[in-house]
Structures are given as C-alpha cells and as structure tokens.
Amino acid sequence: MTRPFLTIALPVLFVGAFQLVSCQSTEIPPAQPGGVYLSTSGGASFNQSVNLVDDEDQLQGYIDTLSFYNIHRPAHLQATIYLIAGGNGLFVSSNDGESWRSLSTPLSQVTAFVHLPNDVWLVSGTNQDNEGIVMRSLDTGQSWAKVLTIPAATVEKGQFFQIIKPPPPPAIFVANLVPDPFNNERVYATTSTGEILTGEESGKVWHSTVRLQSAKSNPYTGRSDAPVRKVIPSPHKANDLLLVGTDGDLIRANNEETTRLKSPPGQVIDAVYISQFPNALFISTTGGMFISRDYGENWVELKVPISKSQPIKNAVIRVSPSNPDRLLVTVNSIIYRSEDGGQNWNALSLELPNHLITDISINPQNAARVILITSPVKS
Fold first, then answer.
1. What are 352-373's pLDDT values in tens digits?
2. What three-state secondary structure class fits 59?
C-alpha cells in the first residue's frame, strides 16, 4: 500500500535542472513557482527566494525547479542554511536565505549534511556504484575523506524467480545526519535499513546505537529491521532520542533501550520537542496534529482546519523557539499558523498544488525569519 506521506527513500520524486541565465543577458526571465520560500514575519507570509549567485554575489540563475528534502541550520552559524537536493547536490546561504550558492560534493546523490561547531563537514549519500557513503571534510569542502561505507545491496541467485529480469535492489544509505545538542563532536544517523548509528570524534568513527525490529524481513538484507524516517535528539536530556518509524510509530530510545510511545490515531509523520517544556511533544499524523505535555502518555488534538478533499501526503510541524504559542503546520503545500497555542489558525497557500513542503527551519536568534523548501510531485 502506498504510504500517504514521504517515506525514507533515495530522493527520486523529481530531479530538475536549476535555471541558468547569462551574465551578459539584459533581461532575466522570472523564476517559476517552487523551490525555497522565506518569511520575515514569523510565517505570516512568505516570498520566493531562489536566486543562485556566485562568490561575488552575481546572479547565475534560479533554484526554483529543484526538489529539496531537508534543511540544515548549524547551531553556531544560525544565519547559514544548507539545503539537501538529492541528485542536484547541496546548496548554501550565508545570509539567512536571501540567496544561494551551489556546493560541490563527490557524491552522486546527497541525502544529508551537517556542519559541526569545529567546522567539520559531514555529507551522506550514494556514489556511482550505489554504495551508501558518509564523507568528511576538514577544510570546508576543499577535500573529502570517506568515513563510512555501506555496500550496495545485492540479490542472491534464486531469490526472485522472474521471466523478466528484476530491477536492481534499492541503495542502502544514510538518510539523516543530526548533531547531538549535548556533544559538539557527536552526530546521529539513520540508515535506509533501520539502524541508528552514532558518529564520534566529529564523524571519524561510527558504531551502531539501536535497531528497531519489524515483523517482516528485508529481502535484500535478510534482517527484520524497521526503517526509521527521522531521529530527533532531545534538547533537554543527553542520549535521549525520539524516533519516527516508516510504519508511523513514535519511539523513544535511551541508553540502547527503546519504548514505543502511545500515539493518537493515524501514522506519525513528523515530531518535534517543545523546547520550553521538558516533557512536551508536538506531532503530526495522518489523523491530525497533537500535543502531549507528559512525553506521550496523553495527547490533545489541535483543531487545525485541514481540508479533507485531499489525503495528507506530508505534514511538517514547528514551534517558535521564542514563543511556544506560535505553531507552524504545513500540510502538503498549505501553511497553517497559530499564535495562541493551537486554539485558532490562519491558513496560507503558496499556490503550489503540485508541490509538497518538505521542511521548515526557524532562526533561533530571530524567530521572525522562517525558511521552507518544496519538492515537485507528479500529479
């Protein structure tokens, strides 16, 4: 059955080419809808921000037609934003989303990126041989070294009997890289086969942290792993992780022990901690949006006025770092904003019916500045 939300998979929804314009041109055509949107009003309104510039800030084109999958905002450089764009690589803004530059990496597909406080860069993805790779740079991307390799999956002879040759197995790769808020040289990673990995010494060495079990075995790995869509380190307690599984479960992992939390109806799509309250969680599910004040023991549904005319394909949620009553929810391509903790909502459309909003980032030092990214989808 097709999942009603984005699952952990190598980005294949859309691979477009950003528009290039000649520096000699006297007339630059306008950007198409899509790409990246910036708010300077805490999410009350958004304007497209897709200018691609060179090192001298000269316009080179637009990043309007690309598929973007995640945002990374380094904790120590909060006006710097990195965008992960799958087969189109990596983009960076050093002016809080006003303009963008392309960054080169040695990978064919980029799935995640982190910039650590000691200026070590880590990038994950796949190479031309379909291996899952994590690479590390100590000189801001001038050179790279492999620190983790996941061999490409293979199909054993006789495993599938088909007259027509079966397609190659999907790549096994690191899908998320997330810094540990309590240790500047530690990162957490999720793989497409279900493992949670920990990278120590700024990603130089790696070890397995926890693996979730599923009732079904993976035909390519032979293991009964339950893939994890997302890992969210707690901002309140060291070594405490919140995991969102592709089956829609919400799991708490602490000291190599896992507990499936009670969750409301529907499959969990996104989850965040409410940083102002130690045990508070905010989640989106295929059944709606919910808040818990006691780490999932009890849930209160927020009456977000979501249209029932279309299924929820993706839902991103965020809480303002300066005001816990300001909530942002995106469902498919519609933005909902509350200033009173979810009692009342305003809806905003970006007029992008063939796009999904895939991630949101709020500047912790200036919560009025919000960036969101989109990905085109086939109709």
1. 999 999 999 999 999 999 999 9
2. strand
The token pair that represents 320 in the structure block: 């303002």
Rounded Cα gap, residues 293 and 144, in angstroms:
43
Inside any domain, residue 18: no
* Nearest residue to 123 via CA among 153, 170, 77, 85: 85
The number of residues making up the chain comes to 379
Strands (E), 268-345: 268-273, 281-285, 288-292, 300-302, 315-319, 327-331, 334-338
CATH of the domain at 139: 2.130.10.10
Q: Are 171 and 130 in contact (CB under 8 A)?
A: yes
User: Beta strand pairing status for 81-84 and 132-137?
Assistant: unpaired
In a domain, 267, yes or no: yes
Is 15 a domain residue?
Answer: no
Q: Find out whether 35 and 46 touch, Cβ atoms under 8 Å.
A: no
Range of the domain at 162: 32-376
Beta-bridge partner residues of 86: 110
Q: pLDDT for 207-218, tens place per residue?
A: 987 666 544 444
Q: Give 248-268 pLDDT, tens digit per residue.
A: 899 998 876 888 898 888 899
Q: Would you give the end-to-end CA distance of the chain in angstroms?
A: 18
Burial of 9 (0-12, 13-18, 19+ CB in 10 A): middle
* Maximal C-alpha separation, the chain: 62
Q: Which two tokens mark 288?
A: 């709606």
Tokens linked to 87: 């087969």
**What's the number of domains the chain is made of?**
1
pLDDT digits (tens, 9 = 90+) for 329-349: 999 999 999 999 999 999 999
Inside any domain, residue 27: no
